[in-house]
């Protein structure tokens, strides 16, 4: 059975804008283990569902998508963002 993971997209450290902030992403968990290719040694699998990522505007849309297609899912809690506000001069203390 396919299991989906629903999580909220977070802003990466290299991003300064807020274009994709607040979007929710659905991605499928791996069903088959990674196996080493005997010729190249690269890790691979026949499971292509892990390559699929679907973005939704709200969490409810992602849940409705899973329920309408009979996909089991679990929600990944978001970590709170903690900002340390300091003055530039504090770097030289």
From TrEMBL:
Keyword Methyltransferase: no
Record localization: Membrane
Listed Pfam families: NDUS4
Chief subcellular location: membrane
InterPro entries, sorted: NADH_UbQ_FeS_4_mit-like (IPR006885), NDUFS4-like_sf (IPR038532)
Top-rank taxon, per record: Bacteria
Claim: Repeat is one of the keywords in the record: no
Keywords for this protein: Electron transport, Membrane, Respiratory chain, Transit peptide, Transport
Record lineage: Bacteria, Pseudomonadati, Pseudomonadota, Alphaproteobacteria, Sphingomonadales
Name the UniProt record assigns to this protein: ETC complex I subunit
PANTHER family recorded: NADH DEHYDROGENASE [UBIQUINONE] IRON-SULFUR PROTEIN 4, MITOCHONDRIAL, NADH-UBIQUINONE OXIDOREDUCTASE
